[in-house]
Amino acid sequence: MSQENILKVENLVMHFGGIKALNDVTFDIKRGSVSALIGPNGAGKTTVFNCLTGFYKATGGNIMLSANGKETSVIKVLGEPFMMTDFISPVAFIQRLKYKMFGGSHLVNRAGLSRTFQNIRLFKEMSVVENLLVAQHMRVNRNLMGGILNTKAYQLAEEEALERAFYWLGVVDLVDFANRLAGELSYGQQRRLEIARAMCTNPEIVCLDEPAAGLNPSETEALTKMIRVLRDEHKTTVLLIEHDMGMVMDISDYIVVLDHGEVIADGGPDDIKSNPKVIAAYLGAEEGEEVTL
Amino acid sequence: MSQTAGMNYKQCFTDAVVAALMALVVFGPIMGVVLDGYKFDIDFQRVAVIVALVFVGRLIMSYYFQTEKGKAMIFKYASNHDGVTVNPPHFKSKMIWVIPLVMIIGFLIPFVASKYILTVLILGLIYVLLGLGLNIVVGLAGLLDLGFVGFYAIGAYALALGYENLGLGFWSMLPIAAIAAAFAGAILGFPVLRMHGDYLAIVTLGFGEIIRLVLTNWVSLTHGPNGISAPLPTFFGLEFKRRSASGETFHEFFNLPYDSGYKYMFVYLVLFIVVWAVLFIKHRLVKMPIGRAWEALREDEIACRSLGLNHVLVKLSAFMLGASTAGLAGVFFATYQGFVSPSSFTFFESALILAIVVLGGMGSTLGVVIAAFCLTVLPEMLREVAEFRVLIFGILMVVMMIWKPRGLVRVTRNGFAAREGAVK
Amino acid sequence: MDIVLQQLVNGLTLGSVYGLIAIGYTMVYGIIGMINFAHGDVYMVSAYLTAISIALLTFFGVQSFPFIIFGALVFTIVITGAYGWVIERVAYRPLRNSSRLSVLISAIGMSLILQNYVQLSQGPNQQGVPTLLSGAFRFYVGDGFVQITYMKVMILLIAFTGMAVLTYIIQKTKLGRMCRATQQDRKMASILGIDTDKVISSVFVIGSAMAALAGVLVTLDYGAFDFYIGFIMGIKAFTAAVLGGIGSLPGAMLGGIILGLSESLFAGLVSSDYKDVFSFSLLVLILIIRPSGLLGKPAVEKV
């Protein structure tokens, strides 16, 4: 892949009824980096995330994801409303109809982006391994006849999926819990399982929504290490929302700061630390006041 | 918290009195005043009995929930974690011994049982089929389908209409009916399944009604409420009638005396094989990617979408498979009755099938099989309770949802042996 | 021309009845997000209660029409309200924290219980009430005429009064404020000291009372009923609620009237055999094209 940026967000706007959650958000994420999206509560971080991952349909702007060897417009695959011009050009009409009928956030994942959730969303009444197997749905042998007759090809594909699942269980240190129900795990374990599940879809970029929330310091430490493994060993780009500034500054190559639905600063951790706008946004402080992050 | 001495008898008593008064208000007019034309008869006795029952029941309940055991029970059901366990890896089910035994007994039954028992068993097996189909939709995929009877009707009418209009027999209509039902499921499901789950319930309810109304009103095709006759299956082209217009009949070919029981025997055996095939397919499906996807979708749709699963198509596959199973059941129902009419496909049928799934346990195959036989065969045997059947189903649904929402049979999940991880 | 006008008049009365029942669906959906399947059967129970109250009143020698209708209304509304309360208490409150599927199944169970209980208590045959108010206004249009029975006029008057009273309760009273607060955010409302269980119960009582109002009016007008009427009526009223936007009170009324009018026109002009098919198809179409209905707010999915 020649392109340097894996994700390009241009002039993203999101309105909920009359509330403007995002006004003109623009930033790029470099391939192979660990980037963080920070900002005070209510700044619109999760809204950006939900737009990126295709759970909200942005009101305006553009999101381009270049992964899996192609460019994907996140807004387009969610299915846009028909336009007058579509009725003249059948090709455009059919494409739009296709995305209207079969489009949705799952296509964003298939394009190479996966995510975790702020309020953990595991399949609680399924076992830990099964959670990881579901994530590999697009990669396993889904041939109905093959599965019912239990053919060689099917067994091989299942075995491979299990191996991959156990590999990721090893990475997040959950092998001993493989046959437990996901809902029985502790909070920290559930967070780790969710990351493993996101990685099982083989993404090029993984978006983590507050991965360290509710973790104790040693768990956060382990998480930091894990994120480095994702970046260095698996060449996965990581984008995270996080409130733990220590961790963000420690791990990130690039930070985007949001406030009131706008990007107020971006750059490396050192730039951000000393940026007066960021400090003011976080502490509501008068300009010139001495604050350290 | 835990002193039994602090039993509040006064509380128990007031609870019970309030409940009894409420029962009097609610049950009094409807049960006590029986309309008879524009006049009425008074029936105090029924009201007194029911009010007394409510009073005593509430008293006992109030008392029980103040004891240690009762409190523990409340706690258990408030925390809402019960039912599902994961089997250890390499777990061998005891069913391995039971299944061949049941198979052999099942195959021998028609040669010893009377015609009446055979018909009851056929009905039971038809409901097993229906229960299995709905269990895929409700139990695995978590989609509440209240118009299941619509697909059942499509299967049954497909056989009858195919025979009357196209001259197709049982064997050619069996797959066609399943496909037709699945197709109807796709047409209904595709637009509806992308919506919020609750709407699905009411839309399918409406769909079941539409099918019934169309069958009733489209007299030129379906003969309306009078119904339409359906053909019997043939044994390699041999018919089970006393005399056949076209060629030999079964009893003539084998030099047997004519007996109308043969056709039931044959229907039973074919149905028995089909039920086992469906059982096997379902057993495989839950272990396959598609089955996992259904269950994952039931657990959390948003998470599924974030993992690249097209939730509409995954739901649709469950919906269509369920529908096609109902279509199969419909064909057997039509051939077993020899006749179909719209009155066989009311909402009560849907409710009965749902009761089977609810009682048997969402997602549990064994539970559904047992429940199907209990709910269809028992009322046949005990004619006295037949009129209370629907009432019992209703109470069963409410009580099961409060007490054991997962059904009576424990749901177990497959364990996987740990292995070396690898990424290819 | 006269057929269209006649059907419009019929549709308006039918629609106001649908609207009354739809209120029960929409309020319950708004407050606890569930479809109360038993609501149609609550309506059915109210039809029986109407007949019972009329039979009792005539037995005790009440002859004048205003007294009978007033007595029937009070008796039916109070007892149907009690039904609403009991149903919520028995079948829904224990499931407050369960999955949506469990609550739906419980609701269907409740619906079956009500149907069969009434069937067992009152017998499976059709029942009826005597005609209490006859006569009609006639307007001549061209060659034909349009007929509006006094009963239909009364239905419209009482139905709209009922809706007005309900709107007043929801908009102006303390109970209405608590309902609206609970609808917005149940947890927050309970933190602020609102007894949300009580509010939910009262919503069931109000919804059932509205269904009872509809039950009295339809029974007086139509005369005959059986234990099965709740099923069809329930689906249609639900269609009305969805059409207007589920969760929205004015939407329920508007949806009811639109459904009533279009159904009557369809029955008059196309086919009366398929009028139920028409209504159900309308439900499916609305859900596909505009699931938020006419006045409802589009739901934002919480991720």
Automatic annotation (TrEMBL), chain A:
Family: Belongs to the ABC transporter superfamily.
A Gene Ontology biological process term: L-valine import across plasma membrane
Residue stretches making up the ABC transporter domain: 7-285
InterPro entries: AAA+_ATPase (IPR003593), ABC_AA/LPS_Transport (IPR051120), ABC_transporter-like_ATP-bd (IPR003439), ABC_transporter-like_CS (IPR017871), BCA_ABC_TP_C (IPR032823), P-loop_NTPase (IPR027417)
Full protein name: Amino acid/amide ABC transporter ATP-binding protein 1 (HAAT family)
Highest taxon of source: Bacteria
Pfam families, per the entry: ABC_tran (PF00005), BCA_ABC_TP_C (PF12399)
CDD domains: ABC_Mj1267_LivG_branched
Organism: Marinomonas pollencensis
Keywords, comma-separated and alphabetical: Amino-acid transport, ATP-binding, Nucleotide-binding, Transport
From TrEMBL, chain B:
Membrane topology: Multi-pass membrane protein
InterPro entries assigned to the protein according to its UniProt record, in alphabetical order: ABC_transp_permease, LivHM_N, LivM-like
GO cellular component: plasma membrane
Keyword terms: Cell membrane, Membrane, Transmembrane, Transmembrane helix
Cell compartments where the protein resides: Cell inner membrane
Domain of life of the organism encoding this protein: Bacteria
Pfam families referenced in this protein's UniProt entry, alphabetically: BPD_transp_2, DUF3382
Annotated ranges, domain High-affinity branched-chain amino acid transport system permease LivHM N-terminal: 12-107
CDD domains according to UniProt: TM_PBP1_LivM_like
Name of the protein in question: Amino acid/amide ABC transporter membrane protein 2 (HAAT family)
From TrEMBL, chain C:
Residues spanning the membrane: 12-35, 42-61, 67-87, 99-118, 148-170, 199-219
GO cellular component, one term: plasma membrane
Keyword terms of this UniProt record: Amino-acid transport, Cell inner membrane, Cell membrane, Membrane, Transmembrane, Transmembrane helix, Transport
Compartments it resides in: Cell inner membrane
Keyword Electron transport annotated: no
Gene Ontology BP terms: D-alanine transmembrane transport; L-alanine transport; L-isoleucine import across plasma membrane
Membrane topology according to the record: Multi-pass membrane protein
GO molecular function: L-isoleucine transmembrane transporter activity; L-leucine transmembrane transporter activity; L-phenylalanine transmembrane transporter activity; L-valine transmembrane transporter activity
Family to which this protein belongs: Belongs to the binding-protein-dependent transport system permease family. LivHM subfamily.
Protein known as: Amino acid/amide ABC transporter membrane protein 1 (HAAT family)
Species whose genome carries this gene: Marinomonas pollencensis
